C-alpha cells in the first residue's frame, strides 16, 4: 500500500507558502546549530535535516507530525506513506516504523515538528463536541495523512511564538494544543484517532493489545494471552491488528524487539549478542538474519554506520558554532 500527496494538495501547498516561510525562519532561529530541539512546550519537538537521510528506525507515539519544508517517507509494515508540506501525518497508536527524509539541502533544509497527542484530552473533546456521531467504521492503519491547512499552520505559528514568552505557555499553550486536537479530530484523518480513543471500539481494543506488546515484547508471545488482554477473540484480533498496524502481532513484536536492540547497541553500547538476549531472542543467527532484513545491514555494521553519521553531524554543528 502506498499513501502519498495528490494533485489536490498543490493548491494547499501554495496557499500555505507564506506561513511556512515565516515558520521556517522561526524554527531555524530556535534550533540555532542543533538538528533537534525538545522545547519547553510539553510534547513539542522541532527538527531540521540538511541532507537526505538513509532509512532509520523510529517508534512513533500518538502524535501529529507536520513538515514545514521538505518531504519524508514512513514505512509501516507493508504500508508506505509519502508526505510533504501539504499533508500532516497522524499517528494514533505506538507504531514501529522505518523513516527517511527525501528532500533536504543545506540551502533548503528539511524542517518539521512533532507534537505528541494527549489521548485523554482527545477522548474528552470527542464527547464535548459530539464527534462520535460522525463515525462509521474507520478502515486502515493507525497512521494516516490529512490536509495541512492554513489554519493548522496558523495554530503552529502561534504555538511556536509562545517560546519567546515562556510565562504564557501554561495557559495559552494548552488552548492552542486543544485547537490542534479539534482540527485533527474534525479532519478527514480524524476518524482514525476517534476510533482509537473511544472505549469499546475495535480500534481501542487493538490499542490495548499494542500497549501490552510494548510492555511485554521480550516475552514469548502467546496469541491467546494477547487476545484475552485485549478482550477479543483470536481471529478478530488477528484481523483488526493487521488492519491497524499493517503487521501481524508476531511481526509487530519482532519489530519492537529489533528497534529496542538497535537502541541498546547505540545508547548503551551493548554488543549484538547481549542486545539480542535482552530483547528476547534465543538464537543469535535468527536475530542477525531478521535485523539485516529490517535495517539493511548486520547489527554491528549498521550501528557503526549510524555512529559515523552522528559523528559527522556533530562535527558539522561544532564547526558552525566555531565560525559563529
UniProtKB/TrEMBL annotation:
SUPFAM superfamilies: Homeodomain-like. The keyword Methyltransferase does not apply. It holds the Pfam family AraC_N. The keyword Secreted does not apply. GO terms for molecular function: DNA-binding transcription factor activity; sequence-specific DNA binding. Keywords: Transcription, Transcription regulation. This is AraC family transcriptional regulator.
Amino acid at each position: 500500500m502506498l499513501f502519498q500527496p495528490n494533485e489536490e494538495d498543490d493548491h494547499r501547498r501554495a496557499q500555505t507558502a507564506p506561513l511556512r516561510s515565516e515558520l521556517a525562519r522561526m524554527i531555524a532561529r530556535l534550533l540555532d546549530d542543533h538538528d533537534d530541539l525538545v522545547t519547553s512546550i510539553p510534547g513539542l519537538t522541532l527538527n531540521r535535516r540538511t541532507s537526505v537521510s538513509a532509512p532509520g528506525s523510529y517508534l512513533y507515539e500518538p502524535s501529529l507530525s507536520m513538515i514545514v519544508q521538505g518531504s519524508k517517507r514512513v514505512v509501516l509494515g507493508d504500508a508506505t506513506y509519502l508526505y510533504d508540506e501539504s499533508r500532516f501525518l497522524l499517528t494514533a497508536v505506538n507504531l514501529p516504523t522505518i523513516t527517511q527524509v527525501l528532500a533536504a539541502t543545506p540551502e533548503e533544509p528539511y524542517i518539521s515538528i512533532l507534537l505528541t497527542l494527549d489521548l485523554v484530552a482527545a477522548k474528552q473533546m470527542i464527547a464535548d463536541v459530539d464527534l462520535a456521531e460522525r463515525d462509521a467504521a474507520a478502515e486502515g492503519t493507525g497512521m494516516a495523512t490529512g490536509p495541512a491547512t492554513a489554519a493548522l499552520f496558523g495554530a503552529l505559528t502561534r504555538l511556536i511564538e509562545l517560546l519567546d514568552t515562556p510565562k504564557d505557555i501554561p495557559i495559552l499553550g494548552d488552548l492552542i494544543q486543544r485547537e490542534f486536537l479539534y482540527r485533527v479530530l474534525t479532519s478527514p484523518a480524524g476518524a482514525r484517532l476517534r476510533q482509537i480513543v473511544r472505549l469499546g471500539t475495535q480500534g481501542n481494543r487493538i490499542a490495548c493489545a499494542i500497549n501490552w506488546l510494548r510492555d511485554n515484547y521480550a516475552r514469548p508471545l502467546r496469541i491467546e494471552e494477547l487476545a484475552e488482554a485485549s478482550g477479543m477473540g483470536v481471529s478478530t484480533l488477528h484481523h483488526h491488528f493487521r488492519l491497524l498496524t499493517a503487521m501481524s502481532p508476531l511481526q509487530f513484536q519482532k519489530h519492537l524487539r529489533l528497534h529496542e536492540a538497535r537502541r541498546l547497541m547505540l545508547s548503551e553500547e551493548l554488543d549484538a549478542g547481549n542486545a539480542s538476549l535482552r530483547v528476547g531472542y534465543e538464537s543469535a543467527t535468527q536475530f542477525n538474519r531478521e535485523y539485516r532484513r529490517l535495517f539493511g545491514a548486520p547489527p554491528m555494521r549498521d550501528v557503526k554506520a549510524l555512529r559515523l553519521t552522528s559523528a559527522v553531524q556533530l562535527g558539522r554543528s561544532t564547526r558552525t558554532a566555531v565560525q559563529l
